[in-house]
């Protein structure tokens, strides 16, 4: 896909994350707590992804095919579970905008480090001064969102 088609998908994903924070924080109230809400969210998401995989691939992948993968590729689900759990706990306390702002800051700072060092087999991209300035501006934006 070309860049101009990927940007709207990225923006839609960002919108979905913000919506997910609000929806899951309300789910928490009826599910009996943040862990139950995160679990329900993952069950619904897993079901949707299984259906999509079946529709697009005609079947599920063989776990034997991925068994030889590096150990750290299996942590994605744990990282996602932490992310959803944290959003369920933080959103009612901090508000959606502040929660998203702090999470975005963490994402940008970690992403720059991942790119710079080529972690997780991502193609290395130097942490140039303009990229670091962009991260600093996001941190400044977080301060403004949180304070005003």
UniProtKB/TrEMBL annotation:
Protein name: EamA-like transporter family protein
Pfam families, sorted: DMT_YdcZ
Source species, domain of life: Bacteria
The keyword Membrane is assigned to this record: yes
Keywords: Membrane, Transmembrane, Transmembrane helix
InterPro entries given in the database record: YdcZ
GO CC terms in record: plasma membrane
TM helices/strands, residue ranges: 34-57, 69-90, 96-117, 129-146
């Amino acid at each position: 896909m070309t860049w101009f088609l990927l940007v709207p998908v990225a923006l839609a994903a960002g919108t979905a994350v913000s919506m997910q924070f609000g929806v899951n924080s309300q789910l928490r109230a009826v599910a009996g707590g943040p862990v139950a809400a995160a679990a329900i969210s993952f069950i619904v998401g897993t079901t949707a992804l299984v259906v999509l995989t079946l529709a697009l691939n005609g079947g599920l992948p063989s776990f034997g095919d991925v068994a030889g993968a590096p150990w750290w590729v299996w942590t994605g689900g744990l990282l996602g579970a932490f992310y959803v759990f944290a959003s369920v706990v933080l959103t009612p306390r901090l508000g959606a905008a502040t929660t998203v702002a702090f999470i975005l800051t963490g994402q940008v700072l970690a992403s720059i480090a991942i790119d710079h060092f080529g972690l997780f087999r991502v193609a290395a991209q130097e942490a140039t001064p303009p990229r670091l300035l962009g991260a600093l501006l996001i941190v400044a934006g977080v301060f403004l969102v949180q304070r005003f």
